[in-house]
Amino acid sequence: MREAVQSQAPGILYQNNSAGNIVTGGGPYGWVEPERYFDTSTYGSKHFGFHTEIGMPVVSTAASTRAMVGEDGPESPIGGAWCHHDWSERGNQAPHTYRAAIETRLGTARDLDDFTRKAQFVNYENFRAMFEAWNAHLWDNASGVMLWMSHPAWHSTVWQTYDYDFDVNGAYFGCRSACEPLHIQADPVQWQVIAVNHMRRALKNARVSAETYDLSGHRIASTRHARADVDPAASAEAYTSPFTDDMPELHLLRLTLRDDRGRVRSRNTYWRSRTPGALRTLNQLQQAGLSASLTQVSRHGEWHEATATVRNRGPWWPRWSGCPCSTRTAPGSCRRSTTTIICGCCPARPARSPCPGRPPPSPPAARSWRWRATTLPPSRCGAEQYRGDTEPATPLRRRGLSCVGQDPTCISCGRLSS
What Å distances lie between residue 127 and 112, 146, 176, CA to CA? Predict the structure, then answer.
């Protein structure tokens, strides 16, 4: 065939498969340390190039996993039903390494709910790293990367960003974070901070900042700032935010990218630890006392608008709760957010705790943000679908709706399940 193409159509590229010649493929299909995605040897090549297949095991939410096992099936331990749905230790997915990564980082799970909750942490961390590795070398020696795969044809425990029930998981949110049009990130090896611009217009005079916090929300180092100009479809290095010896074994690195008008265009938070086991400290953090209510739903032609109020009723600031999404509100206060009805949440964002020796700060005024949605035809499961004006179409599951807002210019966004 190659000879026929060359003789009959000189100059035409003949690409006989999706993982050879001018592109690469072949995984990895199992779990690897997030920093390995930034090393070209992981892909058996000297360059990132265009890589057509990459993925890893992905355990979805507890509700979806129960649907996979069936009403009469045992929830745990992992057994026959899981293996029937691709949890095969003899395949490329190597789920035993994925399970080990979850347990090394966050401990052995008590039950199915605990295991699926902890799995979302690993899902988010790794899928964000997959795309950020290509962002870091964008159009230098990297041109693109494709997942194997976005979703499965039936209930599965591997290779998915949303599952057979159309439920999204940590992998989806990791992808969404890394692939936002304007993005701020750091590589997990040298902690080089990089601004990424996937837009058609140059980003001029942007401001990059890096803050470090302990798990109580106290800033542990001075905030670093830098100005950056990023060409269209390019990335630009700002500075290095090193993990120094005097920093806690586990802390948060929070990066922020603002445009020339001071608007926040991207936020990204990393859990930095000296050893994977140090992340188990996250299990000891107090749960935030949050409540949410859907206060108003309106329709304007083809657009739907929902207003949600999220209240923090606890004595402390919200802390990590096993899912990389959170609404930041002061203790005893509330925040209103007008959102498109779509599935999703946003990366966790650290907030500074009030000093124990001082009274808590006054509750901030309620703030609102607006997103619009267009009604789409009913999905396979019968739930309506909505499409935001800046978000891809995302189907909603029949078992419940999720209301979320995320906008690159807002300081916070929230999630409400009803």
Answer: 22, 11, 9
Q: Determine the residue type at 300.
A: H
The CATH number that domain 16-178 falls under is 3.20.20.80
Quick one: which of 50, 69, 53, 72 has its CA closest to 61?
Answer: 69
**Concatenated DSSP letters for 230-248?**
E-TTEEEEEEE----TTS-
The CA distance from 397 to 172, in Å, is 15
The class level of CATH for 182-284 reads mainly beta
Among 231, 217, 239, which residue's Cα sits nearest to residue 285? 217
Among residues 267, 272, 251, which one has the least CA distance to residue 177?
267
Q: Which pair of structure tokens corresponds to residue 86?
A: 């691709």
Q: What is the pLDDT along the chain (418 residues), one digit of tens a residue?
A: 889 998 999 989 888 888 888 899 999 999 999 999 999 999 988 899 999 999 999 999 999 999 999 877 777 778 889 999 999 999 999 999 999 999 999 999 999 999 999 999 999 999 999 999 999 999 999 999 999 999 999 999 999 999 999 999 999 999 999 999 999 999 999 999 999 999 999 999 999 999 999 998 899 999 999 999 999 999 999 999 999 999 999 999 999 999 999 999 999 999 999 999 999 999 998 887 888 888 888 888 888 888 888 887 765 443 333 333 333 444 444 444 444 333 233 333 333 333 344 444 444 433 333 333 333 344 333 333 333 333 333 333 323 333 333 333 332 333 333 2
Question: Among 103, 102, 104, 106, which residue's Cα sits nearest to residue 119?
Answer: 102
Tokens representing 232 are: 């269209």
Query: Could you tell me if 100 and 57 are in contact, meaning their C-beta atoms sit under 8 angstroms apart?
Result: no
The Cα 321–Cα 343 span in angstroms is 18
pTM of this prediction exceeds 0.90: no
Domain boundaries, the chain: 16-178, 182-284, 285-418
- The dihedral over CA atoms of 394, 395, 397, 400, expressed in degrees to the nearest 10, equals 60
